[in-house]
Amino acid sequence: MTDQYWAYVDPKRPRARMKGEKKPGEKKRPPRRKQDFAMVDKLKQGNKFNIESFSDWQNKANKSAVRRDMYKTGGGGFGKPTVHQVIDRHYEDGTLNKRDPAHDLGSGKLDAVRYHNDQGRNWTGSDMGKNVTPEHDQGALKKKGKFKITSAANVLNVIHGKNDAESIKNLHGFVKQAAHITHPEGTFYVNHPKDPRYHGLGNKEVEGVLKSHFGGVKKDSVKKDVYICKEPKQ
Questions:
Q1: With contact defined as beta carbons under 8 Å apart, do 100 and 69 qualify?
Q2: Which ranges in the chain are annotated with CATH 3.40.50.150?
Q3: Strand 147-152 vs strand 101-104: parallel, antiparallel, or unpaired?
Q4: Phi, psi at residue 206, to the nearest 5°?
Q5: pLDDT digit string (tens) for 15-63?
Q6: Contacts for 13 with CB less than 8 Å, ≥ 6 apart
Q7: Which CATH superfamily is domain 82-232 in?
Q8: Is-contact 209 101, C-beta < 8 A?
Q9: Buried (b) or exposed (e) across 158-178, using 16+ Cβ within 10 A?
């Protein structure tokens, strides 16, 4: 008998992996950022987010992807505004062409822009004042008649002034800008939510502002707070 020790190893049976060893082809999970941990804290506090469970969210390290998922499904406080619900419907029924250039005014954190571009559409966005970041396309506001599709979701209700007269003046400035960049055959989608409203204006006053800058203004047949504006007066 020799000092050697022999053992049979079945070649068809995969060997046990060492601790920390990854499966063949398994990718390294990217580290989460500080912002992501802030979102985790919100989830732990019991906020209602439209995802199946906390563990599902943990498996998604990319926060922006989570925001887009929530935006698409309408959960997490980032729900899709009625303006973009109408736009979605018009893409689906062929009213809009996804190759046409589109621009979202007052785009905030660009959730709408990212959402539409994820669908293979051609969107950019701009904003005002301190909200502007390098990601916003502020140069688009100078492109007369450039965009076949323009939108402003939950914006008219927060534009205001010291009094009603100043609020109307500020609304005229914003809608005029929208008309300026909308293609002569394009469409401007905008809504006027009931809550919140930072001004004391009703729908009639807002409709009057819209009609001053667009030849054709009508409400959507399904989402009554959405105005579909055509024939921009440039």
A1: no
A2: 82-232
A3: parallel
A4: -70, -40
A5: 556 656 666 666 666 555 555 545 545 544 444 444 444 444 444 434 4
A6: none
A7: Vaccinia Virus protein VP39 (3.40.50.150)
A8: no
A9: ebbeeeeeebbeebbebbebb
Cα–Cα distance measured from residue 197 to residue 205, given in angstroms and rounded to the nearest whole number:
13
Cβ atoms of residues 128 and 164 within 8 Å: no
Strands 182-191 and 214-219: unpaired
| Nearest residue to 110 via CA among 67, 75, 142, 73 | 67
* pLDDT confidence band for 129 (50 / 70 / 90): confident
For residue 183, the one-letter residue type is: H
Task: Return the ∠ at Cα 211 (arms to 170 and 204), rounded to 5°.
Answer: 75
CA dist., res. 156 & res. 161, Å (int): 12
**Worst-scoring range by mean pLDDT, 56-60, 93-97, 112-116, 190-194?**
56-60
